[in-house]
């Protein structure tokens, strides 16, 4: 039976199920294939591969990590057009890598997973899908990432608005903004990229800012034909270039630990704002009042000059109410609006965005209960009580300073090592010891206390409501790579199946 045929049956059984077809799921799939494991499936809730870079297509969408770093180390692309590529080029890269490794045939599209349950006797997981089907697997990898559920603010009267509402992650390219009155809410990484484009198209644009971001100049450059030719012909040059980018990004971990270093750069960045924005009052409002790095540092050369346009206004009052054709602000002023653009980010707390995604592990274990206070994992990858369940970009693996793909590759290497060791032992499941996970998280939270994220005087999506940071890795990325280089056998419990049904692949439905 071919892989394609297998994934069409109602209930099937595979060795590994991957939930999510973005960079993480793709990396996992490629490494499984390289290890000779074709008995897997990617369950993708959308109708295309690429994750973030499939869904986020707003005007100006681009990556703020350099392309030669923001790509797989094992799938170099000497032809990146710019230092920071735009969404379409990254999307094309992902499609190219997918085709090269023949991953599409292992993918089931429009397959939303709604729950996962472990049978410790059979040592198998059952994944429930929204269409009513089920999938049985020995291992599953949650690769959906933390930035895929759009966050919609709940402003008073929002339901009465008669115009168009667009979230940055769900852009409607058919909606023509020309001549329209647009009110854009939010000034995060997404907004600062689309605002300059919307300003050019709209009749009038109001940018509603709750907290100004720190923005540094974008060290943009286009790669010349000669550079690309050299990168292709002399791979060592491309690798050196990647190494240089890696090290310069890694250096940015220092101010994270020492906010005083971060503050040294603030006067120059304030001058950058005043240099780029002509109106003094507007410039003053754009200056953040918290330490650089506390929220994600953004990069743009186009955002600040947008406020010099006659058709753009900055509003720093809160939104009080939305009416049929307008937005009312806390000072009582009212702005007519044909369109609301929400650059309001994502629901990043897995306790909220996974609240309807029931996961049960060993007897008596329910992830929603175990994560009641905070999402916790070991190395952001395994969770005690949930054998053979892995996560990519799980708790405390996000980055404020370098490429998340570096972290994904480290995690995938670790998962492959776990699966390999389990098979070599002839066991059916592995489960990280609770005390190992607890020790790891206690230390991590201790180390986070001194960082700019906790002491920088801001709130951000890096923190839960109680201030605990379950999002970011507070060290150099090579330290994460070292920690995940291989699985320490003593960190885990290794168990055979009680029922003789763990020989996955032996009896397919
Ligand atoms: O979302 P955000 P994003 N009333 O959460 C504001 C990645 N990314 O989509 O700061 C008024 O950062 C909110 O205000 P405040 C990257 O990891 C990468 O922009 O909370 N305002 C904030 O200004 C990034 O960090 C790239 O006070 C409200 C904004 O909305 C992550 O995605 C590009 C509000 C949300 O900013 C998320 O970025 C894009 C309300 N009720 C995204 N609610 C690149 O690589 C929220 N806000 C370039």
UniProtKB/TrEMBL annotation:
Transmembrane segments: none annotated. Gene3D superfamilies: FAD/NAD(P)-binding domain. Coiled coil: none annotated. It holds the Pfam family Pyr_redox_3. This is NAD(P)/FAD-dependent oxidoreductase. It comes from Alcanivorax profundi.
């Amino acid at each position: 039976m071919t892989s394609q045929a297998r994934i069409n049956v109602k209930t099937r059984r595979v060795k590994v199920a991957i939930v999510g077809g973005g960079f993480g799921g793709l990396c996992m799939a490629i490494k499984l294939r390289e290890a000779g494991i074709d008995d897997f499936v990617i369950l993708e809730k959308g109708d295309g591969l690429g994750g973030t870079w499939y869904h986020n297509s707003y005007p100006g969408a681009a990556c703020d990590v350099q392309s030669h770093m923001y790509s797989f180390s094992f799938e170099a692309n000497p032809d990146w057009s710019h230092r920071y590529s735009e969404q379409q080029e990254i999307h094309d890269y992902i499609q190219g890598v997918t085709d090269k490794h023949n991953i599409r045939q292992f993918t089931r599209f429009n397959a939303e997973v709604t729950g996962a349950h472990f049978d410790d006797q059979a040592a198998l997981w059952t994944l429930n899908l929204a269409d009513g089907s089920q999938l049985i697997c020995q291992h599953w990898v949650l690769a959906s990432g933390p930035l895929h559920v759009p966050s919609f603010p709940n402003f008073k009267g929002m339901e009465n608005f008669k115009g168009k509402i667009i979230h940055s992650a769900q852009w409607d390219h058919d909606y023509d903004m020309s001549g329209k009155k647009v009110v854009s809410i939010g000034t995060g990484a997404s907004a600062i990229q689309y605002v300059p484009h919307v300003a050019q198209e709209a009749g009038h644009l109001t940018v509603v800012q709750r907290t100004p971001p720190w923005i540094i100049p974008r060290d943009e450059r286009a790669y010349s034909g000669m550079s690309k030719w050299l990168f292709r012909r002399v791979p060592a040059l491309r690798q050196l270039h990647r190494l240089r980018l890696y090290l310069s990004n890694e250096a940015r971990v220092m101010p994270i630990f020492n906010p005083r270093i971060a503050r040294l750069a603030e006067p120059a960045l304030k001058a950058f704002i005043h240099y780029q924005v002509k109106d003094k009052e507007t410039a003053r409002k754009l200056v953040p009042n918290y330490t650089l790095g506390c929220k994600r540092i953004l990069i743009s050369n186009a955002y600040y000059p947008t406020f010099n346009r006659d058709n753009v206004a900055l509003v720093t009052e809160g939104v009080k109410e939305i009416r049929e054709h307008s937005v009312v602000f806390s000072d009582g002023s009212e702005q007519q609006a044909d369109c609301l653009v929400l650059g309001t980010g994502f629901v990043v707390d897995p306790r909220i965005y996974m609240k309807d995604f029931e996961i049960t592990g060993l007897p008596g274990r329910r992830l929603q209960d175990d994560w009641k206070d905070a999402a916790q994992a070991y190395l952001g990858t395994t969770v005690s009580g949930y054998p053979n369940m892995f996560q990519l970009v799980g708790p405390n693996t996000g980055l404020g300073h370098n490429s998340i793909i570096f972290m994904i590759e480290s995690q995938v290497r670790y998962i492959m090592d776990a699966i390999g060791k389990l098979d070599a032992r002839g066991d059916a499941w592995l489960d990280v010891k609770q005390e190992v996970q607890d020790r790891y998280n206690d230390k991590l939270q201790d180390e986070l206390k001194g960082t700019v994220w906790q002491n920088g005087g801001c709130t951000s999506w890096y923190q839960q409501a109680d201030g605990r940071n379950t999002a970011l890795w507070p060290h150099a990325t090579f330290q994460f790579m070292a920690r995940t280089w291989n699985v320490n056998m003593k960190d885990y419990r290794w168990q055979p199946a009680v029922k003789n049904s763990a020989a996955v692949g032996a009896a397919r439905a």
